[in-house]
Amino acid sequence: MSIYFEAAANLLPWMIEMRRQVHAHPEVRWSEEGTIMLIKQLNSSSYSHASFLHHDYQGGFVLDVISGIDLPIMAFRADLDALPIQEETGLPFASQVPGVSHACGHDLHIAMVLGVARAVAAGLVKPTHNLRLLFQRAEENPGAPPDPNSGGYYLAQEGALIGVTKLYVLHVLSTLKTGSIYSCEGPIMGNSDRVCVKIKALGGHVAHNADARDVNALRIASECIPMLEAIVNPLAGRNISCEPTGLIAGKGQSSSNIMPSEAEAWLACRTYLGADERTALHEGIKRQISGNVARYSNNRASAEVTVIPGHPATINHGFAGFKSTLEASGIAVLDKAPELGGDDASHLGNYVVQQGGEFVYAFIGAGGEGFADHHTPQFNPDESAMQLGLEAYLALACS
Amino acid sequence: MSIYFEAAANLLPWMIEMRRQVHAHPEVRWSEEGTIMLIKQLNSSSYSHASFLHHDYQGGFVLDVISGIDLPIMAFRADLDALPIQEETGLPFASQVPGVSHACGHDLHIAMVLGVARAVAAGLVKPTHNLRLLFQRAEENPGAPPDPNSGGYYLAQEGALIGVTKLYVLHVLSTLKTGSIYSCEGPIMGNSDRVCVKIKALGGHVAHNADARDVNALRIASECIPMLEAIVNPLAGRNISCEPTGLIAGKGQSSSNIMPSEAEAWLACRTYLGADERTALHEGIKRQISGNVARYSNNRASAEVTVIPGHPATINHGFAGFKSTLEASGIAVLDKAPELGGDDASHLGNYVVQQGGEFVYAFIGAGGEGFADHHTPQFNPDESAMQLGLEAYLALACS
Predict the structure, then answer these.
(1) CB-CB under 8 Å, B339 with A253
(2) What range(s) does the Peptidase M20 dimerisation domain occupy (chains A, B) (predicted)?
């Protein structure tokens, strides 16, 4: 039984307490003030084994945990923001904010990375690195107001990673079984791009629907789902997926005798394409959906198609070393096929790799079969998985 | 040239002025107070040829125009309410209320029926009937808040039609050429029923969309359009139509990485079926859509299906007499195939016919090719068509 395991087991109850505090008070992107205040309450004055340095950036809050002079800098990342989802778990520590919840597990990430600071400051482990703990704002929904950029983008721009030679990011995944860590070399997550299609049509009285496909903006917007699939499917061997995420048309009952003249459809479009191919796909989507809508509606409706680039693909460099370090401490690391989630840790990782460093993004199993997916009202990951996450971070810090 | 033509031509400028006043200040169902106040400003004190009696009902305002003792009572109907549509005509007298407009021509109906009162009171014509002018609230969107019932339903219940032997309702139609009146014997418009489908699904992260049709409420709600069509199409020989009017899922950009767990679809379902067959169809829709959603989603999503009965079908009794009266005055009356609009004049008409009277609902051409359809932001009927409407009402009043 490693000292990392013992330290993590020791701190699990404290991490659970911290996680539940954060969970009850979720804050959406670019409004994470309360969460940052809570993080800042952990200070080093009551400990003798490390000193803490605080840095406020636009992209988030950075806590340096200094264990010695001239140690190399290793960074870990926790994301701070919650999602616009009404929690329906019924948990005693459920979100107290209507319509907002930590439905992606960022609350667990915060508690784990805080656990690192506390374990080091209390002398439970002795790192071979000074640690830069990145508490990053606005990971979710790049492109959305009030600032389309993400926290990771800003942290990389602001120099928060200068001098960092290794960056590791652990993300819980409720659909993977607790007890292992899962990752791979190279691309692990995709470009998380969004397509917004605004249809403008003539509309009309529902009784006059003989030429509905020409004039009913809702009917036309519904067709955008198969239209995007038709564009993307020929590229399917390249691991591309698209999925509708929103559609707004009409005003419910109060307009229930009207064929809407406007509709807005939102679709996710996720790929591993590099910058040039990605841009070409976006241009193709804009051109083809506009053309398809015109043809479908006999030139009586039009589509304004916007592609909002999300996070770039997340690409690992250094998985072999990451894996051997963890396995040497008795932690199971399983190979995982890449998936088309997206994370702005990619901005941070790209920066570190460009400077010659290493970057590994990995998932921590936090549930398994029967656990609700991320981004759902029932999301309720296995919080005991934080123990393995902290154990892994500590093993890396001491490697 | 008949005296009806002359009277109507004489009053057209006044009707246009009244219509534009109403048009600029539209009021949605059950909020027509300002419109009724405007109507009440027309009083008989300055005229010597008829006296006016005012009656306030829950269903609207009724103006009796009394020309003599013991004359039979003939009723005309004007509907008062506007629609929740943002006007985009750019007209100088366009709606001054954001998001609300007279996009169905009720403003023209009000001006025409007021024209009847003024023509009779001024002695321009000499009716053989006392006239009951029904200014009826809440014709649009039966089933919607704040009161699901319509104004016509209440007027019939409240006794506003007691003693009425003939009821005529003229409705402008912008897609028919100005200059003629169009109607038929028997059914002319349909049961204007609504179907609301609320989908509850698991939702999920957009990257986990391998089983999207099981969990994405938006994808499932979009399928309700073909599902309803599949139920209704086998009855197509019976003149049945369905059309989507609304779909709400997700929160646009702020939820653009989430497969929605909820979606609400609205569909219009219009038929000429009698009461029993209509009820059977509603039960079939509820049962089959619920079952289809369960099957489509592999029992992982559920649908709550509500059918909101709209106005009953509009069924004319007495078209031959109506037509011969108008043709005798030189007014062109063309046969029109029934269409699946809906109007709560059916409540009024059913009442009169049950009492042994006559009821004819007819369209006045008010535009033609190139004119925007009813219920659209660009709706702008030919207001000169009010002249023919008034001419017809006066010819009927004197028949």
Answers:
(1) no
(2) 203-287
ipTM: 0.84
Are A3-189+313-397 and A191-308 the same fold in CATH? no
pLDDT higher than 80, residue B239 = no
- Of the candidates B202, B241, B256, the beta carbon closest to that of A209 is on B241
DSSP per-residue string spanning B5-69: HHHHHHHHHHHHHHHHHHHHS--BTT--HHHHHHHHT--GGG-SS-EEEEEEETTEEEEEEE-ST
* Cα gap A178→B355, rounded to integer Å: 76
- Interval B72-113: pLDDT, tens: 999 999 999 999 999 999 999 999 999 999 999 999 999 999
- Sequence-distant contacts of A82-85: CB under 8 A, at least 24 apart: A82/A26, A82/A27, A82/A28, A82/A106, A82/A107, A82/A140, A83/A26, A83/A28, A83/A140, A83/A141, A83/A375, A83/B255, A83/B258, A84/A28, A84/B251, A84/B254, A84/B255, A85/A375, A85/A376, A85/A377, A85/A379, A85/B255, A85/B258
pLDDT value for B240: 81
The CATH class given to the A3-189+313-397 domain equals alpha beta
* C-beta atoms surrounding A329 within 10 Å: 17
| Strand-pair partners of A324 | none
B270 contact A CB<8A: yes
Partner B, chain A 247-266, Cβ-Cβ below 8 Å: 247-261, 263-264, 266
Helix (H, G, I), strand (E, B) or coil at A239: coil
Q: Are B24 and B89 in contact (CB under 8 A)?
A: no
Distance CA B83, CA A4 (A): 67
Distance from C-alpha of A142 to C-alpha of B105, rounded to nearest angstrom: 45
State pLDDT tens for residues A69-99.
899 999 999 999 999 999 999 999 999 999 9
List residues bridging with B268 in a β-sheet: B194, B243
pLDDT of residue A238: 60
Give per-residue pLDDT as tens, A232-278. Answer: 877 766 678 889 999 999 999 889 999 999 999 999 999 988 889 89
CATH homologous superfamily, domain B3-190+312-397: Zn peptidases (3.40.630.10)
- Domain B191-308: give its CATH code: 3.30.70.360
Structure tokens given for B252: 């646009």
**Rounded Cα–Cα distance for residues B341 and B310 (Å):** 11
Mean pLDDT, residues A4-17? 96
Q: Which of B189, B190, B218 lies closest to A247 in CB terms?
A: B218
The answer to whether residue A284 neighbours chain B at the CB level (below 8 Å) is no
Q: Pairing state of beta strands B51-57 and B60-66?
A: antiparallel
For residue B175, the chain A residues in CB contact (below 8 A) are 208
